[in-house]
Structure formats: C-alpha cells, structure tokens
C-alpha cells in the first residue's frame, strides 16, 4: 500500500507540475508542427511523456513509437533510449513486467553506449525496482544501490533525492525498517539545506517542496507504524496546511486518507469518518484511483462496524469487494491478452530472423563460389573471411540464446508471482463470501447484533490478511497457521459448531523462523470442510492440522473424519449447481513451478478407512523443503 501511494505521488514530479497542462500541451504541439530532425524527436518524446504523466497510455505510446522510429532513422541515441525508457514505464504501470523489463534493458544498453551515466543510473533504478516487485529482491536492491552510487558521484541533487525516497519506500515494503529510515534521512539531509538556498529556480523550488512533502509523509507513516499517533497526526496537519493553496487533487487525496487511518488507529472514529467522507468527495473530482476507493470503503466499513451500524458496514464492504474484483479481473484479462500477443510476436520474429540469416548465408556461399571460379588467387582470402563471418554469426546466435534464457527465467518468476496472486484471491471465492453474507443475514434476522458484529469483524480480518499476503512470496509459518485458524473459526461459526479442529506443531519446529508460500494449506482445509465433514449426519466433524519435521523440510498433515472421497464424488455427481473450487488445482500448479526452481515438494491425498473397511475420512500430506 505504501509503495502504491508513492507511485501516484511521485508521478507529480514531472515537468507538468511546473506549468499549466493545456499551455504545455499547446507548446509541444506547436514544436511538433515546425521542428525537424532531432528537435522533432525530442518534441515527440515530450508528448509521449506528457500523456504518460496523465495516464493516457494509448496516446503516450503513439507519440513514443513515432519518436523511436525517427530517432532510429537519425541514429539519435538520446531519442532512442528516452523512448524505450518511457515505453517501459507504460508497461510497468500496467503491471506487464516482462515487456517492461525488456524495454528498460534495451534503454539501459543504449544509454551506456554513449556514456550517459545520469540517464543510465535512472533506468537502472527502474530495473532494480521492477526486479524487487517480481521477487528478484537480491538483484533488485543491488541495482538500486548501484544507481544511487552513480548519482552520488555525479552530485546530481534532484534525481538523487528522488532515488533516496524511492529506495526508502522499497525497503519499507520489504520490511527492512532500518534501511528505509536511513535512506529517508539521507533524502532529508540533502533536501532541507537545498530548500534554504536563495539561488533556486522556480522548477527546482517546486520540486524540492514536493520532495520534502514526500519525506514528511513517509515519516508520518513510520510514526504511525510505531504507534506514535500524535506525531504522525502533527505531520499530516502540517502537510494539509502546505497543500491548502496548491492544486493537485491526487496528493491531497492520499494525505486525507492517511489522516483518516491515523484517527482510526487512535480510536477517534468520528474524526476518521469525516476524513473518509472528504477523501471520497475528492476521489469523485479527480481521475479514478480504484485501489484507494476500495481502501476507503473498507476503512469506513470498519468505522461503521465499531460504531454499531452493521448494515452500513456491510454495504461498504460489498462496495470494497466489488471494486477489488473489478481491478483483479481487468488486470488478469490485460495480462492474458498481452502475454498471448507477445508470444505470437516473439515466434514470428524468431522465424523472420532465422529466414533472413539463412538467406544471407546462401548469398555468401554463391558469392564465394563465383569468386572462386573467376579469381582462383583470392580463394584462400574468401574462405578465411567466410569462416570469420560464420564464427561471428555463431557468437551472435549464442548471445541471442543466452538472452532468451534470461527472458524465460524472468517470465517464469513473473508467472509464479501472478499465479500466487490468483491462488490467494481464489481462496476468498465468491461461494465462501456468499455463504458468509447469508450467515450475517441470519444473525441480523435473529436480531443477534453481537453475533453479526463478531462475524463481520472476523470476516473483515480474514479478507485483510488475504490482501496483505497477496504481495508476498513467502510468509512465516506462524502467520499461515494464524490465517488457517481464523478461517476455521469463521467456518465453524457459520456451520453452527458442527465440527472441532486442532492445530499442533512439533516441538522442534519454530513457527517464527520457518517460512511457507502464503495460503498453500487453506484450499485443502476448505476441501475437508466442504466435501468431507459437511455431509456428516451421525457424528461431529473433526479436522486435525499437524506440522512435523522430515529430512530437509516440514510435513503438513490435514486430516478429517468426513465421508471420504468416494462418497463425496456421488454427492458431487448428483448436484446440479455445485461450486467447483479451483484452489486445489492452483496449489498443485504452484508446487509444479517450485519444482522448476530445483525444489522437491510433494502433495499426497490418502483415503482413510476404519476396521470394517468403511470410509472414515481423508488425509492430505504436503512436504515442503526447508
């Protein structure tokens, strides 16, 4: 969430901050009409950057592609890598990480070829940030520090402050608080003295003021995380005062929302509600920011819940869920379309390259044969040149193969990241939410407000944990077990105490020092409830979850005393509209991807029988390496 807020705020530091948008756009269009050669390429890149800042990606891509084509024709390196870097920015903002990485790498190579250290450092920082986002954290942080070192050497103040703030936020997302605070302090140490200088241009002054607000904003978040609410609130009020006479709806939105969060944590619900409502009002008057829309509705639902207004809380929760589902559906559709198009384009490009190389090779052979017949004395020279060319072609082919392997590795990591996102969201499936809402309705009809409040609170907590874990590659075993227990407690309450459960961890395992992919166990627990104990009639259900050590890792056993898979199959075949959960299949796909990383996990489902041979339940055994 903190990094999302930063990305929106940081987009305000572009050149459009310092002038009227319509005036700047008119100036760019006028330049395009009269400029030629490299000046025209710069103007086209400026138009592309303008529309990128405005989140108008189609227009931005149109102008950037024209700038790129003209720059290539003129062999204008600065125009080439500027276009590529901005096109990478479009892909990154739309979470299309594979093409974004490819654009950034090409842009970096072009900038390094002409020794443009400043631009190369900025592009390298983008690559580092992207690598952290897709799970290559070690490489990503290394690239960020390399970029920082270059800008420190060049003493380029504004880009350096910007990079310090970005690096601080990325470390904060990675839960490395000390490093986050260190880079924030570095930014402040440069920014404050610079602001006090009297020789600043208007552009420099506005930029530094904006950077200072970013620094204060993130310091406020740090105070809030350490429960120093009064200090955090003081910073928010200072920011609100500075923004009073400044246009910039998006920045105001985030400050208003953060103030609402602080009041909520201070249990001052009336003030928190006022700031939630003012945030929603601001959101109606600016470009859509759907993630913040969803967060504000979720926060306001929590206020309604704690204020004894369950109907209003439920309405806001539904609105938050609807917005999140729309965001997720749009992202998945977009990623699928882009991936399909990219694969088709890659295949066609490989075929064209292969045919061109083959054609070129034939031309050389014919030329060599003709020259050998006409001029025998030059035969040896021609043969040597041919061998040299073949060696060069082989070297290029090997370089292309190595590059394709690197891209495939990045795609695999992105696929794992996206699959984990899908798996995590699949846990909170519509069927479960529908049942939960029915349970809440049941409490309301019975006028059991206490029961309804308790159920809504537990459901909200479970949904928040799901969203929190969605961005993580691994979580602590203790966090996974807490999540499972919340889910079991909610299901037990919904099914009117029709089953008991136990969770045991072997004494040699330390849950706070052991990691596990997030919510890998939940689909199997859900399966045990839905297709096992749900159909029990003559006895109370029981679910046992046990964690024990095995050689090189941990074994997770999920055992139920349900009716068994064979009988469950008959129930499924007779059902007319049963919900088909995809959680198990997604978990198996996640395990398959882990195998590609040279790990050896396994999943085994075992049918249990009593002494008379009657089905007495099911046991799932999952083994994960340490």
Distance between the termini: 30 Å
Shape: globular
Q: Helical proportion?
A: over 70%
Percent of residues in beta strands?
A: 5-15%
Strand order of the largest sheet: 2-4-5-7-6
Q: What is the residue-mean pLDDT, rounded to a whole number?
A: 79
Keyword list:
5-stranded mixed sheet, two-stranded antiparallel sheet, 626 residues, 23 helices, alpha+beta
Question: How would you describe this structure to a colleague?
Answer:
With 626 residues, the protein is α+β, with helices and mostly antiparallel strands. Helix content is 73%, strand content 8%. It has 23 helices and 7 strands. A 5-stranded mixed sheet has the order 2-4-5-7-6, covered by helices on one side. A hairpin with a 2-residue loop joins β4 (541-550) and β5. It is globular. Mean pLDDT is 79; it is low at 1-19 and 576-580.
Brief description of this entry?
With 626 residues, the protein is α+β, with helices and mostly antiparallel strands. Helices cover 73% and strands 8% of the residues.
How would you summarize the topology of this molecule?
Layout: H1 2-10, H2 21-34, H3 37-53, H4 57-74, H5 77-93, H6 97-113, H7 117-133, H8 137-154, H9 157-173, H10 177-196, H11 202-225, H12 229-242, H13 249-265, H14 269-284, H15 290-306, H16 310-374, H17 379-427, H18 430-445, H19 449-469, E1 475-476, H20 477-494, E2 499-505, E3 515-516, H21 522-531, E4 541-550, E5 553-560, H22 564-574, H23 583-595, E6 602-609, E7 615-625
Parallel strand pairs: 2-4
Antiparallel strand pairs: 1-3, 4-5, 5-7, 6-7
Helix pairs in contact: 1-9, 2-3, 3-4, 3-5, 4-5, 5-6, 6-7, 7-8, 7-9, 8-9, 9-10, 9-11, 10-11, 11-12, 12-13, 13-14, 13-15, 14-15, 15-16, 16-17, 16-19, 17-23, 18-19, 19-20
